[in-house]
Amino acid sequence: MNRNSFLRSSTFRLALLYVALFSASVLLLFAFIYWSTARYTAEQTDGAIIAEIRTLAERYETRGLPGLRRLISDRVERQRPTGKSIYLLSDTRQRTIVGNIDRWPQVDEVDGWLNFELETGGTRRGVHPARARQFQLVGGYRLLVGQDVNELKRVRLRIISSLGWGLLLTLALGLLGGMVMSRRMLHRLESINDTSQKIMDGDLGRRVPSRGSGDEFDQLADNLNRMLDQTESLMEGIRRVSDNIAHDLKTPLSRLRQRLEALSRHYSDDSIPKADLEAALQETDHLLDTFNALLKIARIESGPLRSDMQTVNLSTLAADVVELYEPLAEDKRQRLTFQSRSDPTVSGDRDMLFQAFANLIDNAIKYTPVGGIISVHCTSHDISTEFAVTDSGPGIPAEKREKVFQRFYRLDESRSTTGNGLGLSLVQAVASLHGATVSLTDAEPGLTVRFILPHPKDGALPKPVQSGPNASP
Amino acid sequence: MMRILLVEDDRDTARHVGNGLMEAGHIVDHADNGDVGLALAQTEPYDVLIIDRMLPGCDGTAIVERLRQSENFTPILILSALGDVADRVSGLRAGGDDYLPKPFAFEELLARLDALVRRGDRSHTETQLQVADLEMDVLARQVKRAGKIIALQPREFRLLEYLIRHSGQVVTRTMLLENVWDYHFDPQTNVIDVHISRLRSKIDRGFSHTLLNTVRGSGYILREPE
């Protein structure tokens, strides 16, 4: 599992989405905590200020101005330097009578409250926010009672920063958890994927591992395994049926052939026309050939025959096929050429590949008119090796190119030539056995058939052999 | 004349093969199951064994394995109803010398038996070969007929070498494909015929006696003219 596929995996994306949602809700919760804490502390301050005003107002009513003055100066004196209460009592002409700030703050009143900046001296030098309330006393005196709320501001900042760190931690933990979770899920999915790939590669007996914990992955694995069992038994059934057909039909056909042979041996005189007997034998052979080809295709398609895979030098193999068919082409005065660029080595069944290439060249010779040109190429690319046959024949119309791979399909124009209509089906079967593809393209004029063998993905392809004698396996 | 053991459970095939072989002048013993077949093969001296792959009792491949284990190296031809590459490989791996998928032309069987039995006495290491006035020097890669050098392509040379080494025997097209070209496949066209006629034009043209003859319905034979 590489990094990219991990980041693109749907489990990781799901985890990411979950982390985002979770963080959003944590943020909301934190915002609420902050808001209610801030409100509570503000209410506390406001309550204290209002209570103090009430106390001072009562003192004024009972003891008059001197009593109030004494109380205020008492409070100011008793207040430690770090104290935060603010008092200011002034007369009708705005002159200070008593208090611990110099002048009346020059701000407008909002809902009966004054919020202003307070310049402080002493140990707590600086500009502090303050909050105060003013009160008009009988007799024209004005009283200001307030508090330095710098502490409050600092507490709020502290709360915000703790909540911020908390949010970061939540995000980090969420991401980590999401990654761990999706990795675990991916791991199990990968094991299912791996198994499917191996089964597609031919290891039909393989099954998806189950942990035995009975979770949904185990259920999925169990279901897949049951499905695979069914598929395998169906395939086994098909194979058995075709083997049975092979046996049941081939045996009487063989006997028919044997009897015809015996007849021609025993009646060497002319009591049975020899030509008729031979024609009958030929027909039987043709029937058997078709039957064999059909069975061969069925067997290749129904199951992997990986046991006979070996290292094959494709160039040597192609050269052998061309050499075998050269005289046939020469008899039709066709020019059969072979070119091999590079020395491609593939893993395959050499007899099957030979059969496929032979069928392709045989077809080309058959359908190319006298005097035509057939060129065979063998080229190695980065990811595949290609065996291509190009002829100067009539080609195949685009709409029929798919159909020619079907069993017994024959183009109308080719009905007059010999063959059973299974040649290309067999090529196709051999190709899929090797994971190869067969493509037909217009060579204008003529036809190009390409047999493209992909290189193994893991790069386990054996290096091409340098010297000649070792080249052919 | 050969002494042949035929291990085959299908009665019709057994009768057909047995009669054919006897008509060709051979002595044939027949076993219709694997156990009897194995017992006969172990006690009687045969020139060649024909063993069917699927048998009641001891399986065909098992017989071959058992015989080879007990150092019995009688040539063995394996018959099989399933003419499949994998079957051929497993049959030959077990120790069989040749493999023939059913159904087969009787001549094919006869030719292959002939080649199997004679393989023992005609040495493959011989490098000077001769049939009538046709001479071949395998090492010098030279072929002469009546003293005149004949130029051959490498494949033609190998084809002729195989024919000369099996001179006097019928060789079939499949035998040539398997032994000269070393591929097992079913050609859609009789490509071998074209190669043979080409070779024939090189070695027989201009001579009063033809050495390379076609045997109708079975294959070819290279032999001295009578």
TrEMBL record, chain B:
<keyword id="KW-0597">Phosphoprotein</keyword>
<dbReference type="GO" id="GO:0032993">
    <property type="term" value="C:protein-DNA complex"/>
</dbReference>
<dbReference type="InterPro" id="IPR001789">
    <property type="entry name" value="Sig_transdc_resp-reg_receiver"/>
</dbReference>
<feature type="domain" description="OmpR/PhoB-type">
    <location>
        <begin position="126"/>
        <end position="224"/>
    </location>
</feature>
<dbReference type="Pfam" id="PF00072">
    <property type="entry name" value="Response_reg"/>
</dbReference>
<dbReference type="InterPro" id="IPR036388">
    <property type="entry name" value="WH-like_DNA-bd_sf"/>
</dbReference>
<dbReference type="GO" id="GO:0005829">
    <property type="term" value="C:cytosol"/>
</dbReference>
<keyword id="KW-0238">DNA-binding</keyword>
<dbReference type="GO" id="GO:0000156">
    <property type="term" value="F:phosphorelay response regulator activity"/>
</dbReference>
<dbReference type="InterPro" id="IPR001867">
    <property type="entry name" value="OmpR/PhoB-type_DNA-bd"/>
</dbReference>
<dbReference type="InterPro" id="IPR011006">
    <property type="entry name" value="CheY-like_superfamily"/>
</dbReference>
<protein>
    <submittedName>
        <fullName>Uncharacterized protein</fullName>
    </submittedName>
</protein>
<dbReference type="GO" id="GO:0006355">
    <property type="term" value="P:regulation of DNA-templated transcription"/>
</dbReference>
<keyword id="KW-0804">Transcription</keyword>
<dbReference type="Pfam" id="PF00486">
    <property type="entry name" value="Trans_reg_C"/>
</dbReference>
<feature type="domain" description="Response regulatory">
    <location>
        <begin position="3"/>
        <end position="117"/>
    </location>
</feature>
<keyword id="KW-0805">Transcription regulation</keyword>
<dbReference type="GO" id="GO:0000976">
    <property type="term" value="F:transcription cis-regulatory region binding"/>
</dbReference>
<dbReference type="InterPro" id="IPR039420">
    <property type="entry name" value="WalR-like"/>
</dbReference>
